[in-house]
């Protein structure tokens, strides 16, 4: 990456969430969350199942309406900052039998820039191909997406995010169910993005790898337990508070670690 | 114009319109919603007809379009309450609206020239004789105009919004994140389905139109790997079904609409069995080859 590719800093928090409560049919999913994610960091959001991690991302994206509170992206509403934000949904959220090619999926990352009614052109397909190549799967550009392995599909999603050329990336479990090689490749891309001055926020399941992979961590279980640099807030005590009562905590955390290891081995 | 030519032309234009919108219905797993709309537009058609006493009126098309959108709106409202399964919400809404249409038509059938059988089962055999007269001159069969304009509308909308419809069908989450308004695109598609269905009433009727909406796109889905090719193949499959169905109906001296739906079903069976990539036989052969030649690495994976 040349110096020209480095994103200028804004001096604003990438994400700021204030007093946020989200409820589905009067069941709270997020409760009174106050959060500031500094820019230029690689950030993990961790917490047990149903802790509201995906909901937090979707609220930042304006896809889930909050009951109270507000969310800002680089000091503005999401709608204003839309072009600054890249989103990687969970891999299972789309139908991989859809009749389309890997390259087409990556080109979708450019649709925002292309705008309503206009068609992607040769230039856009070249950008998309370059993004696939950066993920090491340029040779799969013309494959129909159902013929890709899970890891390859996840790389296609990452390539699409690169095509979005965003300052802030919100990724919902990009490392779920991928093989060890893919995990390494994806983490390298995420680190590159951070080196370019971008902010990457990742919903993450594997507690063990948090200190190795991430700068900051957000511990969430409906309420915000703690958020900050990993070496300050990723403590046993905070993990216990995130993953439940004292009696069950150790087994649950162990289960989580065991489960994520098992999926990584696949 | 030759009668057979008119029938085939109308059939092909209806099949093409249905294939275009039907492809998106199938990909968005909303085939049942297309079926629902094809029924629930009936009261809109009846009211439009009662108001204007004419079958070619824009009021009728507008009435049907409004009922189609109302159907989608009611179904979504019901679903969002979370008290009913999605498919049950569809099943509650469309028969009620359809039945209102049936009552309206049967009640006023004696006063108006709108036959329930025609609406339900189609009347494509009569289309060549129902002519449009403008300023004392006949300008061709009415159905040719109606279905032709509908096809043009479908081509224009799908052509203009191809990228947006593709995005919302594949990944509504990204669609919304990029600011492309999935809800509006959804209603645009449903309005298009409603209008298409009204035109399709001319040829295949309310019951069989779902065969045109769902079957040709399903055939195409089994044959090709890209959305644009799926649209083209669905149109082709629909037109083949029209020709084959007409021949079949002639052979057995039966309903033309029925023949077309049966032909579409036959095409689907062929694709299901013989599609080179996703067909039953190709999959079976590939499976045998894989287990036969390389049992080692496959069993490990």
Automatic annotation (TrEMBL), chain A:
CDD domains: ABC_Metallic_Cations. It holds the Pfam family ABC_tran. One of its GO terms (molecular function) is ATP binding. Residues 15-247 form the ABC transporter domain. Keywords: ATP-binding, Nucleotide-binding, Transport. It comes from the Bacteria. InterPro entries: AAA+_ATPase (IPR003593), ABC_transporter-like_ATP-bd (IPR003439), ABC_transporter-like_CS (IPR017871), Metal_Ion_Import_ABC (IPR050153), P-loop_NTPase (IPR027417). Belongs to the ABC transporter superfamily. This is Metal ABC transporter ATP-binding protein. The lineage of its organism: Bacteria, Pseudomonadati, Acidobacteriota, Candidatus Polarisedimenticolia, Candidatus Polarisedimenticolales.
């Amino acid at each position: 990456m040349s110096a020209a590719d480095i994103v200028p800093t804004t001096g604003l928090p990438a994400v700021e969430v204030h007093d946020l409560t989200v409820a589905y049919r009067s069941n709270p999913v997020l409760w009174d969350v106050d959060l500031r994610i500094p820019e230029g960091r690689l950030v993990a959001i961790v917490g047990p199942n149903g802790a509201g991690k995906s909901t937090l991302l979707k609220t930042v994206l304006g896809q889930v309406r909050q009951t109270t509170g507000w969310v800002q992206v680089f000091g503005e509403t999401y709608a204003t900052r839309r072009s600054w934000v890249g989103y990687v949904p969970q891999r299972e959220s789309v139908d991989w039998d859809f009749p389309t090619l890997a390259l087409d999926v990556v080109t979708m990352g450019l649709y925002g820039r292309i705008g309503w009614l206009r068609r992607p052109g040769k230039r856009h397909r070249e950008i998309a191909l370059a993004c696939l190549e950066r993920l090491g799967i340029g040779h799969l550009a013309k494959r129909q997406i159902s013929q890709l392995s899970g890891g390859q599909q996840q790389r296609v999603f990452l390539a699409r995010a690169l095509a979005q050329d965003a300052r802030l990336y919100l990724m919902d479990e990009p490392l779920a169910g991928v093989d060890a090689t893919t995990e390494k490749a994806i983490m390298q891309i995420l680190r590159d993005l951070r080196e370019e001055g971008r902010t990457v926020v990742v919903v993450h399941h594997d507690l063990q790898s948090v200190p190795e992979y991430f700068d900051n961590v957000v511990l969430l279980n409906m309420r915000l337990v703690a958020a900050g640099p990993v070496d300050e807030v990723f403590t046993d005590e905070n993990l216990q508070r995130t993953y439940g009562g004292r009696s069950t905590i150790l087994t649950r955390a162990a289960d989580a670690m065991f489960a994520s290891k098992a999926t990584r081995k696949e | 114009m030759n009668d057979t030519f008119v029938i085939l032309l109308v059939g092909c234009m209806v099949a093409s319109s249905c294939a275009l919108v039907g492809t998106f219905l199938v990909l968005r797993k909303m085939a049942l919603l297309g079926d629902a709309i094809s029924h629930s537009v009936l009261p809109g058609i009846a009211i439009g007809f009662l108001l204007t006493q004419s079958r070619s009126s824009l009021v009728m098309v507008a009435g049907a379009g409004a009922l189609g959108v109302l159907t989608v709106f009611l179904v979504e409202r019901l679903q969002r309450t979370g008290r009913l399964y999605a498919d049950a919400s569809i099943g509650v809404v469309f028969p009620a609206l359809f039945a209102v249409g049936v009552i309206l038509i049967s009640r006023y059938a004696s006063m108006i020239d709108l036959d329930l059988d025609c609406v339900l089962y189609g009347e494509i055999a009569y289309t060549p004789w129902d002519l449009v007269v403008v300023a004392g001159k006949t300008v061709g069969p009415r159905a040719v105009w109606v279905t032709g304009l509908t096809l043009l509308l479908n081509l224009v909308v799908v052509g203009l919004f191809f990228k947006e419809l593709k995005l919302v069908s594949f990944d509504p989450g990204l669609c919304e994140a990029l600011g492309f308004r999935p809800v509006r695109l959804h209603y645009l598609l449903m309005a298009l389905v409603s209008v298409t269905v009204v035109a399709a009433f001319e040829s295949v009727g309310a019951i069989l139109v779902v065969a045109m909406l769902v079957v040709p796109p399903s055939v195409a889905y089994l044959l090709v790997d890209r959305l644009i090719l799926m649209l083209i193949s669905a149109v082709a499959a629909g037109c083949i079904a029209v020709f084959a169905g007409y021949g079949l109906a002639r052979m057995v001296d039966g309903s033309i609409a029925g023949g077309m739906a049966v032909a579409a079903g036959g095409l689907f069976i062929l694709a299901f069995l013989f599609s080179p990539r996703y067909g039953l036989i190709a999959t079976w052969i590939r499976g045998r080859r894989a287990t036969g030649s390389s049992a080692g690495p496959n069993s490990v994976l």
